[in-house]
Q: What sequence folds into this?
């Protein structure tokens, strides 16, 4: 394990534990510094006990680097691996074992922190056969949403990566914004080129109930939309769920062949249980998605698996239990 690999793993573990505080940021910074420093320089500084003279390297990071340079697995990492496991219930485990992919995740192309390749390699390490790359659409400027041109370039990159990563497969996609009137933040021609489309509301979350219902139903009815992302938009403890008529929205999801996402981000866990139950009653399809913005967050699917098990989501209704070819056939039917 090189110093870079050791620190990458530390950052990965802190991410999966949803650590976003000072310590996590310090390790991200340290990783950047170590990446930019030649290994010979790290060795020279380690011999003189001067690693902490590097910007952003404190005592704990220095100990990890020294351990890695000696060819040892840093002890700190072993403790961290154990302490940051994502909890999975016995019932949830049945869902997690059935998952073959992840349909919603981000890369550095929008607001993620990892390259497409690291996301793919991590997804493969987690046992997945495929992932759908769903960076943001242009309206979400804060997240560097992808224009049609950038998206086309990304699709080319993905094709090249797929040659190298086979048999793992990256499917092309987007998390397209649902605009205020229910239209989408990319035209039909752009969306039609992608393997799978997640559509989500990111703006005007406080709209009145009726226009919000119409907005969501219109998006769900689009033949290009395959998954309705984090439907209530809630942020636990920070933002209430949006107001909409869930009977209309879930009936539309069932009718128009759009899956209801079970979003696994700890601050979202969306939809809340009663709504998830309602979607089950409506006979909806589902996807259990990490919505990961870093490699560690790809490990969040157990959060959604636990809830799916609690509510009794039929496993055969979960899209990402399908092999990629079957998933693509399902998408083609909508
Ligand atoms: Zn989103
Ligand atoms: Zn997302």
A:
């Amino acid at each position: 394990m090189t110093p870079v690999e050791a620190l990458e793993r530390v950052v990965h573990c802190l991410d999966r534990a949803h650590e976003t505080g000072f310590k996590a940021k310090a390790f991200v910074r340290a990783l950047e510094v170590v990446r930019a420093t030649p290994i010979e320089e790290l060795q020279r500084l380690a011999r003189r006990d001067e690693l902490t003279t590097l910007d952003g390297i404190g005592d704990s990071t220095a100990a990890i680097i020294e351990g890695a340079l000696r060819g040892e697995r840093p002890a700190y990492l072993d403790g961290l691996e154990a302490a940051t496991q994502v909890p999975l219930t016995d019932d949830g485990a049945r869902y997690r074992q059935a998952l073959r992919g992840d349909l919603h995740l981000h890369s550095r192309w929008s607001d993620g922190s990892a390259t497409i390749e690291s996301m793919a390699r991590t997804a493969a390490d987690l046992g997945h056969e495929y992932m759908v790359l769903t960076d943001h659409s242009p309206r979400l400027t804060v997240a560097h949403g992808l224009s049609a041109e950038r998206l086309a370039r990304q699709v080319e990159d993905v094709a090249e990566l797929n040659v190298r990563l086979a048999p793992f497969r990256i499917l092309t996609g987007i998390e397209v914004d649902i605009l205020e009137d229910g239209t989408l933040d990319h035209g039909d021609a752009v969306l039609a080129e992608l393997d799978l489309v997640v559509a989500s509301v990111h703006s005007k979350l406080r709209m009145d109930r009726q226009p919000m219902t119409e907005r969501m139903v219109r998006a769900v009815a689009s033949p290009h939309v395959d998954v309705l992302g984090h439907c209530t938009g809630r942020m636990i403890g920070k933002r209430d769920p949006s107001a909409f008529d869930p009977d209309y929205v879930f009936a539309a999801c069932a009718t128009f062949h759009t899956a209801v996402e079970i979003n696994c981000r700890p601050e979202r866990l969306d939809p809340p249980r009663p709504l998830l139950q309602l979607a089950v009653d409506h006979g909806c399809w589902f996807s259990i998605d990490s919505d990961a913005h870093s490699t560690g967050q790809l490990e969040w699917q157990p959060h959604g698996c636990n809830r799916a098990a609690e509510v009794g989501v039929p496993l055969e209704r979960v899209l990402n239990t399908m092999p990629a070819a079957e998933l693509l056939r399902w998408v083609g039917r909508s």
